[in-house]
Amino acid sequence: MATDTIDAAMGFAPDYDSPVPYMQRTREYYKAIGYDPYRWAHYIEVPFAPMTKALREARIGLITTAAPYDPAKGDQGPGAPYNSAAKFYEVYSGDTAQEHDLRISHIGYDRKHTTATDSNSWFPLHALRRAVAAGRIKEIAPRFHGAPTNRSHRHTVTKDCPELLKRVQEDQVDAVLLVPNCPVCHQTCSLAARYLEAAGIPTVVMGCAKDIVEHCGVPRFLFNDFPLGNSAGKPHDQASQDATLELALKVLESAIGPRTTVQNPQRWNADGLWKKDYYDLEAIGEAELQRRRDEFNRQKEIARSIREKAA
């Protein structure tokens, strides 16, 4: 019996409609444009800090990998191509009582299936405010913090993570939500979550790259099976964003040990075909790969120049 006939008879989903294998596709993609495969962080032991307060009495912190919009740094709008000039290389903080224009043009989110027109899908500050108003949590920490998406594991763990810990301790948080966007963002937030938990601060990563987060090993993970750039819920869909935050809070308060993963039951769409497209080398083609190779090298030089000036 043909596979498609068996699938229909059994009610199976198609094989492609599984969590996207971001580590594999990223390795193959960068090899295709001339770079060695990236070494993803991987641990066996995972720290775990239990919640010591009910959420209705808790102050919740927020860590993002999105960047503040700067009109002097080129196109950062919806659908903008990767813009290394918009990257940030040091931890930054913002007042959670204010409004912020945070964008994700500096990272490799899913530009085909993510419109990037609603920052609430990657920066859940408004959803957190609604949770406070509903009495679900006591308060939001006075500041949120930006985590740089360095590809260097050593720099993230020895420089950025200690700075993030220092700032959330100053904020006297009871727990922290970490919201990544691109593949490397997911690793950055995973490393930061591990670092905070080792210091006794409970965390939950809200993300879309299941393989990267679980390969690294984190205490708590809410997996949202959405295109990269939508870790906090569907764009322009407050119900989705609130439900996604609520699930993250439930993971935070209910996990009994490390490596707790809960999958959001929401689906991006009915057929799941979007999962086939991310770094699909056959669809990209050699001519486009060459263009991307040249552009990647150009962006690397821009980033190197910015780092040197900041040093």
From TrEMBL:
It holds the Pfam family GRDB. Keywords: Oxidoreductase. It comes from the Bacteria. This is Glycine/betaine/sarcosine/D-proline family reductase selenoprotein B. It comes from Siccirubricoccus soli.
